[in-house]
Amino acid sequence: MPKTSAIFARIRHRINATSVQGALRGVFGERLPKQWRGKMCFAEAGRQLDGVPLVRRPHAVVFVHGSADTELGWQSRPGELDFGKQLLLDFGVEPLYVRYNSGLAIHENGAELSRLLLQLTQKNKSLRRLTLIGHSMGGLVIHSAVFDAQARGLPWAKKVKQVFLLGTPHAGAPLAKLAEKTEQLLQFIPNPITLIGASVIGIRSQGLKDLSKGQKGISVNDPLLLPHADYTFVAGGLAAKPHGFLNRLIGDGMVRHASALPAQQSESSAWKNLLGRLARRRQVRVEILPRVGHLALRHSPAVYRILAARWR
C-alpha cells in the first residue's frame, strides 16, 4: 500500500489552481467573465510564458492538450513518461506546450493557434521544422489552425512535417453527443423540471458542443490535411484485442475507433497514395493501441514508441 504522504502528493500534483482553471474553462468557456477566460499562450509546468519563446533548435514539437485540460496534462507524474522531455533527450527536439480555453469554439481556438504559430516562426527564423501533437480536442484545434493557415496563406504551415493525432474525435465524442441528445430530449417534454434540466445542460461551453460533432469524420485524402506533412492517427482501446468488438464499440473509453481514425481509402485512392509516396507527398498512418485509455495516450510508452519510430 502506498504511504499516505505519497497519495496526497499525487493528489496535489493532479489538482492545483492551473488544472482547476483548465477544467472550469472547458465546462463554461465563453460564459466565464472576460478576465477569467484567458488567452491562448505558450506555457510550461503550470506557468504561462511571457510572449513567444526563443527556440534554440531547428526542430520544435508543439503539444496541444484536450478538453478541460492544460499543458500539465502532458507533464509527467511519478512513474509516467514525459513525451516532451524524452524527445528532447533522444532526438534534440525542443518541446513547446500550448495552453488555451478549451470551452471556446474550436474554430476560435484554431485561429488563435494559427496566430501563435505564425508568431513563433516569425520570431525564430532558424526554426526549420515543426511537429504538432494533439490529444483529443487538441487534434481538432490543430486541424482548424491548418485550415486557417491554408485559407490565409500563412507560411508557418509549410514548416509542419509531422502531425500526431492522439484519440482525436473526428466524428464526435460519445459523452458530448449524449449531453446534446439529452438536452434536445428534455426540451421536448412539457414539464418545468425537464426544462430546467435542459437549461442546466445547455449551460455547457461551446467547445463541448463542438466536441459532440467533431468534423463529422475525416478521410485519408481529406483536403484539410497538409499535402506535404505526414499524419499519424492513434486510437486507444480498453480491451486486449486491438480489433476486438469491445474496442470497436467503446474505443479508449472516450473516443471510438471510428471517430479517432480516418475513413478507409478505396482501391483507387490506394494507388494515389502509392504515387504520392513516390512523389514524397503526405503519408497517413493508423495505429491502434490495446489497453491504452483516453488519458493514458498522453503518457503511454506504446505511443512514445510510435513517435520515436517516426523520428528514426
Strand and helix layout:
Blueprint: H1 4-14, H2 17-28, H3 34-37, E1 41-44, E2 47-48, E3 59-64, H4 83-91, E4 94-99, H5 106-123, E5 129-135, H6 137-152, E6 160-166, H7 174-187, H8 192-202, H9 206-211, E7 230-236, H10 245-250, H11 257-260, H12 267-278, E8 284-289, H13 301-311
Parallel strand pairs: 3-4, 3-5, 5-6, 6-7, 7-8
Antiparallel strand pairs: 1-2, 1-4
Helix pairs in contact: 5-6, 7-8
Explain this structure.
It contains 13 helices and eight strands. With 312 residues, the protein is α/β, with parallel strands linked by helices. The protein has a single domain, classed as 3-Layer(aba) Sandwich (Rossmann fold), CATH 3.40.50. α5 packs across α6 and α7 (174-187) runs antiparallel to α8.
Which range does the strand content fall in?
Answer: 5-15%
Mean pLDDT: 81
Unreliably modeled segments: 5-13, 177-203
Query: Which descriptor suits the 3D outline?
Result: globular
Distance from N terminus to C terminus (CA atoms, Å) equals: 40 Å
Main attributes of the structure:
312 residues; 43% helix; alpha/beta; 8-stranded mixed beta sheet; Rossmann fold
Summarize the structure.
The protein has helices spanning 4-14, 17-28, 34-37, 83-91, 106-123, 137-152, 174-187, 192-202, 206-211, 245-250, 257-260, 267-278, 301-311, and strands at 41-44, 47-48, 59-64, 94-99, 129-135, 160-166, 230-236, 284-289. The protein is an alpha/beta fold and 312 residues long. It has an eight-stranded mixed beta sheet, with helices on both faces.
